[in-house]
Amino acid sequence: xxFPCTTRFRRLVAGRSIxxxxxxxxxxxxxxxxxxxxxxxxxxxxxxxxxGTIFSFLGPNGAGKTTTVRLLSCLLKPTAGEAxxxxxxxxxxxxxxxxxxxVLTENHGMYERMTVKENLDFFSSFYGIDKVAIASxxxxxxxxxxxxxxxxDKVGTLSKGLKQRAAxxxxxxxxxxxxxxxxxxxxxxxxxxxxxxxxxxxxxKQYHKTIFMCTHxxxxxxxxxxxxxxxxxxxxxxxxxPAELEKQxxxxxxxKVVSARPMSGDIALSIADNExxxxxxxxxxxxxxxxxxxxxxxxxxxxxxxxxxxxPVVEVARQSHSLEDIYLKLMGGEV
Length: 335
Prior knowledge:
This protein is α/β, with parallel strands linked by helices. It contains twelve helices and 14 strands. The strands form three sheets. The chain has a six-stranded mixed β-sheet, with helices on both faces. Strand 12 and strand 13 (about 285-290) form a beta hairpin. Helix 9 packs across helix 12 (about 325-330).
């Protein structure tokens, strides 16, 4: 699949480092006040996102994800703290910032009685771009996202997945540098979800768009993200690459050991010791081994001991903790 690389985009890449911070949040607070109560939506959060990053914001409903997006896209004003996008305070240049970002919400926001092409023409007119240039860009985007043959169909006749693709084109029509995606695959069937994830990865990895994605889909976040932040009740619990979060939260290393024959519970007891090795049967032929020290120091010794005990070991594999494990641990659930 091809994707347009405009002159403006080439100038941006040439003129700035891919590692520049595109978002910086400092002690950001947002309180929604009413006559009855004050609700703290964000409680002094801090965040930095570098240009070209695919970032995932994870958390339950009401955690503060959408509020953060609305603040960064200049639709809300912070109660306290500071937020910078492209190095500019969101309070100082909201129009300039909004001209350089794209926002895709759960509601696609397109007129269902208008065709895809009519919608794209209408929304692109807001940006004051030359009509010839925008027509060329729309054509290129329709081709890139495999929607050329549906351009003259009314949006209301499209499937959920095709509507979401059309909405993404609407979000990209002015060539934004920063793209906000709020639950981008919610309600899509598995095939459409996989296709949409491929588009997100292409935008981030190949064309260096910065992606700020709010999602409940932990598999999606793990597959796509360079950086993950987990937020709950307005506070960021942890932030980092998925692999780094695993190291921070899980001290023990877990291995799966598979035998060609069934094993007894005595085997698990025989390899446990006071050096931080624990073991349990996960199945008749499978043993789970927990190590509190680096595996290169201990695991070969354990395998030798198992062989000495007559266990025909056929597989030894390190088990990684998923983003779901990390999320549950931070939220106080069991892993």
